[in-house]
């Protein structure tokens, strides 16, 4: 006997679990199916983000940053540290505990919102007048029928062709977060977001890190001026980033991994490392979903085809998050989940892709929202730019971290903010002000006229806004 629901959500990552909560708040009878297993085989809600993505990576970034501070920066404050040592097992244990707190938190939220959770793989079996029939294959097999279905099955790491992940020597993001000892030599393929964040973790803990990147430009999606500033900081830290490379044969043995590669000048090179992390992007995940059974349309990348409202080609079937077009970010998945639940309830859920912020949690942090200077140039839009360096910010000096700047880009005629780009301390938090401003279609003068607390890093934001009109006060 199948169990009937108004809404079935397949996938319990940030897209799926948030969609389930919002749908339940709106009065729907909701089920969520998720197959992620913890080390004991039990459920681990939260998807990639909670288990092998955002949360554990930030836990390791914090631990390694603390170690780096104690080793290299505490002395500036008169703090002497003797016998500094890293207990990697303890660091990983702390990370696992942080992950578990988040897993448990989502289970609690499901109970609170009366969402029925099924642990196992959800597969479309057929569609009928009653809705979509979905089988759950797991420790307790079941059959559910839902009037509406939200697919939030996320993404998987892409491997290099012919070089599968073994998670021992050749690591995806999963293995990269479980390395049991600091590798003396670490290689990364791809200097995107994961490459830089994971490279930073292990470099701070003492690894000799080399990153091989195919593109000739560093962080091509980031504003060029900001990317240049970040690259300078990474070079100074000793993160070796090779651009414009072609990766050839990868050989892996018990003692290490050797990567044949060609540099930008066409010279053949070999990189010998103890571990290799491959972070060359992620692919949408529809494995075992039974998309073809119900005629769900996928594109050539395997992503589920949706319109701007996250509607698929099938009535009452929606898809959100990493498995559809758009940036692969947890907060984008969450916003889509909320918007879809509201649309199902006849409301007008909305996601503005132009105000989705990006953050790279390296040190310095890199954060941005809206358009880059190169995008504005390419589109022919007339703009004004204003920058302010953290070097001239009192709070940054007191913190002992004056790397980087805030940069504003505003329309030349109307002064509307078109993009804000930050490289420097707490960029991840500072960017929120810019997102709010852009959501309200503020001008740079609006920010420049707002009273910002002193001393705070946010004064650099105000000063960068003032710089658009060439009237900074402290630089
Ligand atoms: P996912 O989180 O991938 O969740 C999908 C869930 O569906 C999984 O639990 C999966 O097991 C389950 N599933 C799949 N198929 C089925 C099925 N048929 N039946 C049942 N269950 C199924 N983004 C940020 O915004 N900030 C960050 O700091 C950040 N850091 C990251 C760090 C790393 C190392 C990685 C890899 C990613 C990071 N991301 C970050 C990206 C972020 O994790 C994803 O954008 C986000 O998890 C996407 O959410 P989702 O709900 O679409 O899918
Ligand atoms: P990415 O798309 O950020 O970067 C991949 C990089 O690999 C690119 O620079 C690309 O040019 C390069 N590349 C591709 N093929 C290559 C090859 N054969 N040889 C050498 N270089 C190659 O992907 P990444 O780092 O794997 O992360 C996946 C996604 O996860 C990100 O795009 C982001 O959406 C999400 N993420 C977000 C984070 C955040 O918000 N802080 C943190 C980590 C991941």
Give a short summary of the structure.
This protein has 475 residues and is of the alpha/beta class.
Describe this entry's structure for a reader.
Strands 1, 2, 3, 4, 5, 6 and 17 form a seven-stranded mixed β-sheet that branches. Strands 8-15-9-10-11 form a five-stranded parallel β-sheet. It is an alpha/beta fold. The protein has helices at 14-25, 47-52, 54-72, 88-112, 173-176, 193-204, 224-237, 291-294, 330-344, 373-379, 394-399, 427-439, 444-448, 458-468; strands spanning 3-10, 30-34, 116-119, 121-128, 131-137, 142-151, 155-157, 170-171, 185-189, 208-212, 240-242, 246-252, 257-262, 268-273, 275-278, 282-284, 317-319, 358-360, 365-370, 383-389, 405-411, 417-424. The mean pLDDT is 97. Strand 13 (257-262) and strand 14 (268-273) form a beta hairpin. Helix 1 runs parallel beside helix 9 (330-344) and helix 3 (54-72) runs antiparallel to helix 4. The termini are far apart. It contains 14 helices and 22 strands. The protein folds into three domains: 3-157 and 283-351, FAD/NAD(P)-binding domain; 170-280, FAD/NAD(P)-binding domain (3-Layer(bba) Sandwich); 355-468, Enolase-like, domain 1. Bound molecules: flavin-adenine dinucleotide (FAD) and 1,4-dihydronicotinamide adenine dinucleotide. Residues 160, 189-195, 197, 212-215, 247, 279-282, 327-329, 359-361 line the site of 1,4-dihydronicotinamide adenine dinucleotide.
């Amino acid at each position: 006997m199948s169990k009937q629901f108004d809404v079935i959500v397949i996938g319990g990552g940030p897209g799926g679990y948030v969609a389930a909560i919002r749908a339940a708040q709106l009065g729907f009878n909701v089920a969520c199916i998720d197959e992620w297993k913890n080390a004991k085989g039990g459920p681990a809600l939260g998807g990639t983000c909670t288990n092998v993505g955002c949360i554990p990576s930030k836990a390791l970034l914090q631990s390694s940053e603390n170690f780096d501070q104690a080793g290299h920066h505490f002395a500036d404050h008169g703090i002497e540290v003797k016998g500094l040592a890293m207990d990697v097992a303890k660091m990983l244990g702390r990370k696992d505990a942080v992950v578990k707190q988040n897993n448990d938190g989502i289970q609690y939220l499901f109970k609170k919102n009366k969402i029925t959770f099924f642990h196992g793989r959800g597969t479309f079996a057929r569609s009928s007048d009653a809705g979509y029939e979905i089988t759950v294959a797991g420790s307790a097999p079941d059959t559910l029928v839902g009037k509406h279905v939200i697919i939030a099955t996320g993404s998987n790491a892409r491997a290099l062709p012919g070089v599968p992940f073994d998670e021992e020597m050749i690591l995806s993001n999963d293995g990269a977060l479980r390395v049991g000892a600091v590798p003396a030599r670490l290689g990364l393929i791809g200097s995107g977001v994961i490459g830089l964040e994971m490279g930073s973790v292990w470099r701070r803990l003492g690894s000799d890190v080399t990153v091989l990147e195919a593109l000739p430009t560093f962080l091509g999606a980031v504003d060029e001026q900001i990317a240049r500033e970040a690259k300078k900081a990474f070079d100074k830290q000793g993160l070796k980033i090779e651009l414009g490379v072609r990766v050839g044969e990868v050989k892996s043995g018990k003692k290490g991994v050797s990567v044949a590669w060609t540099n930008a000048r066409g010279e053949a090179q070999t990189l010998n490392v103890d571990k290799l992390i491959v972070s060359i992007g992620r692919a949408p995940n529809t494995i075992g979903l039974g998309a073809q059974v119900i005629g769900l349309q996928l594109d050539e990348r395997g992503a589920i085809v949706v319109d701007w409202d996250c509607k698929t080609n099938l009535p009452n079937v929606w898809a959100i998050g990493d498995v559809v077009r758009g940036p692969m970010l947890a907060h984008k998945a969450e916003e889509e989940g909320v918007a879809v639940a509201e649309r199902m309830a006849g409301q007008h859920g909305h996601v503005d892709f132009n105000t989705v912020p990006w953050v790279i949690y390296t040190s310095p942090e890199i954060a941005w929202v809206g358009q880059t200077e190169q995008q504005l140039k390419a589109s022919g839009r007339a703009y004004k730019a204003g920058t302010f360096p953290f070097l001239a910010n009192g709070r940054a000096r007191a913190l002992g971290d004056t790397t980087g700047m805030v940069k504003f880009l505003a329309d030349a005629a109307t002064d509307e903010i078109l993009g804000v780009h930050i490289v420097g301390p707490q960029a991840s938090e500072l960017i929120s002000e810019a997102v709010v401003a852009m959501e309200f279609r503020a001008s740079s003068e609006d920010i420049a006229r707002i009273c910002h607390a002193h001393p705070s890093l946010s004064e650099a934001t105000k000063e960068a806004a003032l710089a658009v009109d060439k009237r900074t006060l402290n630089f």
